[in-house]
Amino acid sequence: MQILKRSIVCLLLTLTPLTVFAEERNTLFSMHGMHHGGFGGPVLKATKIGDNTNYLMGGKGAWLINHQFYLGGGGQGTLKDINSEGERMAYGGLIFGYIGQPNKPVNYSLEMLIGGGRIGMSGLHDEVTSHNTQGDSSDGFFAAEPAVLVNFNLSRFATASVGLSYRYISGSNQATLTDSELSGLTAQLSFMFGRF
Fold first, then answer.
1. Which residue, 115, 119, 191, 128, is CA-closest to 155?
2. What residue spans of the chain are helical by DSSP H?
3. Are 160 and 151 in contact (CB under 8 A)?
4. Distances from the Cα of 118 to the Cαs of 37, 88, 113, 137, 168, in angstroms?
5. What class, spelled out in words, does domain 35-195 have in CATH?
6. What are φ and ψ of residue 108, in 5° steps?
7. Which end of the chain has fewer surrounding CB within 10 Å, N or C?
8. pTM over 0.85
């Protein structure tokens, strides 16, 4: 019995410094005191593609860290044909962002989308011209879109944003529109809902 008691006392004395050390240790990637949230919602964009004004509809969602940094994804597609061939464009990807002064009722965001997309026939045009189409007529491309947004905190759970972005398209191999004609300045309006 004495041996058992001594063993338990020795074990406790050995583990006590380890427990204290574990409680006091700070790490580079500590999650203690970090706030987590998330948001998502619809995005409407107006832009010029080639010689014509077009609109894109889509959405985005993200994980928000410490009210300021966010990581997520998003995508959008054109609401009208981008050329006389009846083609439409859609793109999306990862989104990285930073919110400046998030506690103020009006603040700003810097955002970057990096991903890709496709250009292809719209569904209605596909049905009409399916007898002339062989194989997949869609065409892929790389897309990057930096944005500057002004945010309006409507409530604890809702934010409206307006801003400008530049859509950079590369590698589309389009016969009717070049990469520079597919690229361009974009105005956007969005409504985000979640935990900020």
1. 191
2. 2-24, 123-129, 179-182
3. yes
4. 31, 8, 15, 10, 14
5. mainly beta
6. -135, 160
7. N
8. no
